[in-house]
């Protein structure tokens, strides 16, 4: 991540920026789709990391020049494990292969995401799913959409009738976080109808925004994991907080996005 704070004039409309961002993530997704199909075998962590880097570099080779042309003075973040607040100004927060490990294993759950953050607030995001061709977009104050169709979170008001989801702790996570993830899954197994556990987080959050599942939670996490989905869910009418119900920021140690009708119950379950 560049450490130089950047600022820029808001000359091009954010709506136009979002349209062009969606085109950029679509182009990067097409390049990754061409590499998809066979399981990429690896015998060590080093081999795995090299394979992940090839996918990242393939997508970044398209995303970086296109997004830089759109906002030449914006900072650039591409480390999907990075977290915390950003310096002032505008920043592109990009995950060039969200769910990269799934891509390598020929599993379909992966995406390309790009989010423009202004003064530490996400203002627009585009999430492209190359295997389905779907593109989820959100613009602060203007709603969330799937291929141009408005998205709305679920009207469900009973956690006992809800499908909920979480993402596992990342590799080498602190043992306390891993155990907290496990205990939260157990609590939700008692209270929710169905519990789904998988990576990546962003795809669960697109489902919350689309009303397909009712809540998603995660402990720890990073900006690139959560910012796109946080904006999508908020703009689709959902509630985003930490697991205790407090306002969520990239510095928070937990995350919860839910339909308004089950948010409070989900907080209570996760607080047990």
In the predicted model, the low-confidence regions spanning at least 5 consecutive residues are 1-11
Helix segment tally: 7
Relative helix content: 25-40%
The overall strand count is: 12
Instruction: State the strand order across the main sheet.
Output: 1-2-3-4-5-6-7
What distance separates the N and C termini? 37 Å
Give average pLDDT, whole number: 92
- Based on secondary structure, the structural category is alpha+beta
Largest sheet: 7 strands, mixed
Helices and strands, in N-to-C order? Answer: HHEEHEEEEEEHEHEHEEH
Strand content: 15-25%
Global Rg: 18 Å
Overall shape: it is globular
Q: Would you kindly provide a written description of the structure presented here, covering whatever features stand out?
A:
Helix 1 (14-34) runs antiparallel to helix 2 (45-70). The protein contains seven helices and twelve strands. The longest helix has 26 residues, at 45-70. 38% of the residues lie in helices and 23% in strands. It has helices at 14-34, 45-70, 100-104, 175-191, 201-209, 223-235, 260-270; strands at residues 75-77, 90-98, 111-118, 121-129, 134-139, 143-146, 149-150, 163-166, 194-197, 215-219, 239-241, 254-258. The strands form two sheets. A seven-stranded mixed beta sheet has the order 1-2-3-4-5-6-7. A five-stranded mixed beta sheet has the order 9-8-10-12-11, sandwiched between helices. A hairpin with a 2-residue loop joins strand 3 (111-118) and strand 4. Mean pLDDT is 92; it is low at 1-11. The protein is an alpha+beta fold.
